[in-house]
TrEMBL record, chain A:
Species: Hibiscus syriacus (Rose of Sharon)
Cofactor: (R)-lipoate
Protein name according to UniProt: Dihydrolipoamide acetyltransferase component of pyruvate dehydrogenase complex
GO BP annotation list: pyruvate decarboxylation to acetyl-CoA
Keyword set includes Membrane: no
EC numbers on record: 2.3.1.-
Ranges where the Peripheral subunit-binding (PSBD) domain occurs: 185-222
Signal peptide: none
Top-rank taxon, per record: Eukaryota
Protein family according to the UniProt entry: Belongs to the 2-oxoacid dehydrogenase family.
Cellular component GO terms, alphabetical: chloroplast envelope; chloroplast thylakoid; pyruvate dehydrogenase complex
PANTHER family in alphabetical order: DIHYDROLIPOAMIDE ACETYL/SUCCINYL-TRANSFERASE-RELATED, DIHYDROLIPOYLLYSINE-RESIDUE ACETYLTRANSFERASE COMPONENT 5 OF PYRUVATE DEHYDROGENASE COMPLEX, CHLOROPLASTIC
Stored Pfam families: 2-oxoacid_dh, Biotin_lipoyl, E3_binding
Length: 472, 571
């Protein structure tokens, strides 16, 4: 099953932004051939190799390459091998990131002959990997970062010298070696992390000895970016100016894209399942406090909710079951939490596998990876199709409650509203204030009954209200 | 920094033979027999092609004990000398020479001005192995991914710095005692004081403030070793700017340490420091890290030992000025471009380790008394370790071994050179084949090598007009390595396809330092690939990496005709 979800999740804005995603790819590739910009291809390292995985890039964008320099390490079906450059030039753009897989013969990076051509090459690689808005000049680094309002992550690979001088004012600049901000003093690991997490060191405030930037400073800076980015996927839609969306002709009939077609089929199919709903109000003070505490370690709210849900499901296997044929049902062996994410022109449900077993930090990293892949449209089939329980969160829009449609092939979906300060009557008879969030589960009544959901929700509320188990 | 420990710990040979015997007695017997058979072949074969005398003495070592006893009673040299042999310096080289000298029936004394054991035991390979053992275990325990893959769960691993430092110190003193006892029990006189050569066959020694004594000997071996080399402009304070001497005491674990030099010493310390939580910056004068290694091995090692760790580096730069931390200011390091000599960068770190190599310790030896001029501090010697004077003449009865001659600055090379000298003074000509001496770097995983690197082999081949081939095997295919979940690694064989000669072997991977000896022994004994490929390796063991390596070499058919057929062995 593909990218099915409830209709409420397709806000009108996203259907308005039905820009031609699919067309852009072929077009841009044709462009790359001319000029002195060469493509670096995934080599065939053995006769049986059909695709290769990028283990690591040994050069960064902007680096000068000599003939024979090792550029990238590729894992084939047999071994890891260094791939050397056959030409001189500058590594202009990396098109397949570390960990990514590319078929033999496909372009994995662009090589510019002169430094001046780097920008041109970048623009090209960008137009081939992201959908074609015209932001090229203003936001040259938009390749991975879809949400434009992520300050820390945006100027990623810009040469440090330039960005340093630009951002000095933000850093503490008290390190004696920084010569009043002319140089950035960061520890080796901080530098490595910054590259990995795409954080511009110029914007990071150092808290190490003498104001040195250390790893935790970079992590803190990155987690701000990450959480924004992770939840920003959804948030991005309203952030974009809806009024005069470009490229939309009112009154025109637009055919479904592939993704929209799949969603449509699934939504109709969902009508054949008898569903019902149970709602619950959960106090989130403790969860909010925990989130604040471990946010700096890259933990996102989405991961926390997924983890809590998974732990509750572990105690109520029937809620994690699925009925496909109407005659029998399956207790699923693993708890895979699918989380709905809005992306350009539709939505997709990346899956956090074994969310009950994976620790929260790994889960958060995994989530970030999935979101990045989803944005780059690189999710593998198993990464969005193996969910056993779905989570849909519209809380960040201020939605306080909603109702989700059950994706076919699964047993239940939970709609999560915003956590809001609420005046409550406390047990001691006084009036107090607590953060409360409403959740609403839609389930297949052929296998899951009211009492099952009620018990599940009670467990979930207990976990969220006393979240100490989430960090194990 | 090398594993000469093996030399030291196996010293009480007699204990070993009578006491601890491996439980698999039947097995070992069988293996021994077969090995003898193979060795015979090797000899027969090498006799045909090479007349290198270096192989024989090695094999005879095992049973020379009795011979020496009889030699002592008959053939003692003239009475006019106090000793047959005096060795200046009781490091690993001196120790190896002294033990062999006793075996050969020589009356031997060893002069030591500091502590027995020299650099290796006290400030080098031995304590560093203790630290590396700790770092290896820390790495394993900290690697969540690795543990998980094995199904293990370990809560946060931590360490106590003083405990680690004590372990290194205790190991050094234990080995030092072993060394001292092994010499005392054999009747070697240990003379305390700084030794100075006062004339031919004459040495004076004494402590500061005490009258000197003069002793004479028929032959003298200089084995004074080396000290850390500190380039000018670098101020060593022993606390924040340190050499390996200080680092091995592990008095602190800085948050950020710069290591100047990315050779063995620098690499091993980077392994230790990063495992204990430091971040490391390498400063290397050459354009590439790990310049001494085979380029391919270096590349892979960089990918495994440097890139994923908390290490960054500056290459092609000199550290021209290093100022220790004081008054709340960090250590400052000024970097200058190695080619243009332009200032390039300034680093501010918590500590700096100077690992730029070692310089010979030959001052105060009285070389002027015998007309010897050192070259950059090294004592010039010929291939038989005989000292050469300022006029280019050999000085009779004077030899120099180990770091002081600079031929190959490794503890076990010094020891081998010492044994070679003793062979010569006892009447058997001997030239040590330095290409058969293995070297190892004890990172995790380890790096080891013997013989030529690929570029060296290709250069030699070009000059001498033969063909060179390279074979490689990966640890990824080795059962034992995979069982340990340590499949990262490569073994590389450089050889002559026309006759099957092994030119060099380089290993990067789990226990590489222990694996190299099959190759180094083959080179020392002149064993060819077409013969060694039939040797059997226990399954599953890491040694099969080499087995597969030899089997994957393609030796031309012409050479194979020479291969002798193994003699059947009765069991």
């Amino acid at each position: 099953m593909a990218n099915a979800l409830q209709t409420s999740f397709l806000p009108s804005t996203s259907s308005l932004r039905r820009t031609p995603i699919l067309g852009s790819k072929g077009k841009s590739q044709a462009l790359q051939v001319k000029a002195k910009i060469r493509e670096i291809f995934m080599p065939a390292l053995s006769s049986t190799m059909t695709e290769g995985k990028i283990v690591s890039w040994m050069k960064s964008e902007g680096d000068k390459l000599s003939k024979g320099d090792s550029v990238v390490v590729v894992e084939s079906d047999k071994a890891d091998m260094d791939v050397e450059s056959f030409h001189e030039g500058f590594l202009a753009a990396i098109m397949v990131e570390e960990g990514g897989v590319a078929p033999v013969g496909s372009a994995i990076a662009l090589l510019a002959e002169t430094e001046d051509e780097i920008a041109e090459a970048k623009a090209k690689s960008q137009s081939s990997s992201s959908s074609g808005h015209k932001a090229v000049e203003e936001q040259p680094k938009q390749i991975e970062v879809a949400a434009p309002d992520v300050p820390a992550a945006a100027p990623v690979a810009a040469p440090p010298a330039v960005s340093a001088s630009k951002y000095v004012a933000l850093g503490s600049a008290v390190h004696p070696a920084s010569e009043g901000g002319k140089r950035i003093v960061a520890s080796p690991y901080a530098k490595k992390l910054a590259k990995e997490l795409k954080v511009d060191l110029g914007t990071v405030v150092g808290t190490g000895p003498n104001g040195r930037i250390v790893a935790k400073d970079v992590e803190a800076a990155a987690s701000v970016g990450t959480t924004d980015a992770a939840e920003g996927t959804v948030a991005a839609s309203p952030a974009k100016p809806a009024p005069v969306a470009p490229g939309i002709e009112l009154g025109k009939v637009v055919p479904f894209t592939t993704m929209q077609g799949a969603v449509s089929r699934n939504m109709v199919e969902s009508l054949s399942v008898p569903t019902f709903r149970v709602g619950y109000t959960i106090t989130t003070n403790a969860l909010d406090a925990l989130y604040k505490k471990i946010k700096s370690k890259g933990v996102t709210m989405t991961a926390l909710l997924a983890k809590a849900t998974a732990l509750a499901l572990a105690q109520h296997p029937v809620v994690n079951s699925s009925c496909r044929d109407g005659n029998s049902f399956t207790y699923n062996s693993s708890i895979n939490i699918a989380v709905a994410v809005a992306i350009d022109g539709g939505l997709i449900t990346p899956v956090l596998q074994d969310a009950d077993k994976v620790d929260i930090y790994t889960l958060s990293r995994k989530w970030k990876e999935l979101v990045d892949k989803a944005r780059a449209k690189q999710l593998q089939h198993h990464e969005y199709s193996t969910g056993t329980f779905t989570l849909s969160n519209l809380g960040m829009f201020g939605v306080d409650r909603f109702d989700a449609i059950l994706p076919p092939g699964t047993g239940a979906i939970m709609a999560v509203g915003a956590s809001q300060p609420t005046v409550v009557a406390c047990k001691d008879g006084r009036i107090g204030m607590e953060n409360q969030m409403q959740v609403n589960v839609t389930a297949d009544h052929r296998v899951i009954y009211g009492a099952d959901l009620a018990a599940f929700l009670q467990t979930l509320a207990k976990i969220v209200e006393d979240p100490k188990d989430l960090t194990f | 920094m090398h594993s000469i420990c093996s030399q030291a710990t196996t010293v009480p040979i007699s204990n070993f033979a009578s006491g601890s015997r491996s439980p698999a007695l039947a097995f070992s017997k069988q293996v021994n027999l077969r090995f003898c058979g193979l060795r015979k072949e090797a000899f027969g074969f090498s006799g045909l092609t090479h007349s290198c005398s270096s192989r024989v003495p090695f094999s005879s070592r095992g049973y020379s004990k009795k011979i020496s006893a009889s030699a002592e009673s008959n053939g003692t040299p003239p009475k006019s000398f106090d000793y047959d042999l005096i060795i200046i310096g009781a490091g690993v080289g001196g120790h190896g020479a002294a033990l062999h000298a006793v075996e050969k029936g020589l009356k031997t004394a060893i002069i030591e001005g500091d502590v027995v054991g020299g650099t290796c035991v006290n400030r080098g390979c031995v304590p560093s192995k203790a630290l590396l053992a700790v770092s290896g275990k820390m790495r394993e325990l900290q690697s969540e991914h690795h543990m998980k893959a094995l199904g293990l769960q370990v809560s946060a691993a931590g360490y106590d710095r003083q405990g680690v430092a004590d372990h290194a110190n205790n190991l050094a003193s234990k080995i030092r005692n072993n060394l001292t006892n092994s010499m005392k029990s054999l009747g070697i006189d240990i003379l305390t004081g700084v030794g100075t050569i006062v004339g031919p066959q004459k040495v004076k020694f004494g402590k500061v403030g005490l009258p000197d004594s003069i002793v004479t000997a028929k032959d003298i071996i200089i084995a004074t070793g080396s000290v850390p080399f500190v380039p000018k402009g670098i101020e060593v304070d022993g606390k924040t700017v340190i050499t390996s001497d200080h680092a091995l005491k592990l008095e602190s674990v800085p948050d950020w340490i710069a290591i100047v030099g990315s050779g063995y010493i620098g690499l091993e310390f980077s392994d230790v420091y990063t495992a204990l939580g430091s971040e490391v910056t390498f400063i290397e004068a050459l354009d590439q890290l790990m310049p001494g290694f085979d380029p391919e091995i270096g590349k892979l090692a960089q990918r495994v030992l440097i890139n994923p760790r908390k290490i960054d580096y500056h290459t092609g730069v000199f550290a021209t000025k290093i100022t220790p931390a004081k008054d709340g200011k960090p250590v400052t390091i000024e970097l200058v471009d190695a080619k243009t000599k332009e200032p390039k960068d300034t680093l501010e770190v918590d500590a700096a380790l100077i690992a730029t190599g070692r310089s010979p310790f030959t001052n105060g030896l009285g070389l002027e008394n015998i007309n010897v001029v050192t070259q950059r501090g090294f004592i010039p010697v010929d291939e038989r370790m005989r000292v050469i004077d300022a006029n280019g003449n050999l000085i009779p009865h004077l030899y120099c071994i180990g770091d002081a001659n600079g031929k190959m600055m490794l503890a076990h090379a010094a020891s081998a050179q010492g044994i070679s000298v003793v062979e010569q003074v006892t009447g058997r000509d001997h030239v040590l084949n330095h290409l058969s001496i293995p070297a190892a770097c004890f990172t995790h995983p380890e790096i080891s090598m013997v013989g030529l690197t690929e570029p060296q082999a290709r250069e030699k081949a070009e000059k001498e007009g033969f063909e060179v081939s390279v074979a490689k095997t990966s640890f990824k295919a080795n059962t034992k390595a995979l069982a340990e979940n340590e499949g990262e690694g490569l073994a590389k064989l450089i050889y002559r396809p026309d006759n099957g000669e092994i030119l060099g072997v380089h290993i990067f991977g789990l226990h590489a330092a222990d694996l190299i000896h099959e190759a180094s022994n083959a080179i020392a004994l002149g064993t060819r690939i077409q013969d060694i490929k039939f040797a059997v390796h226990a399954h599953p063991t890491l040694s099969e990496v080499l087995d597969e390596l030899f089997k994957s070499a393609k030796v031309k058919a012409a050479a194979l005709n020479h291969a002798p057929v193994s003699e059947p062995v009765a069991v």
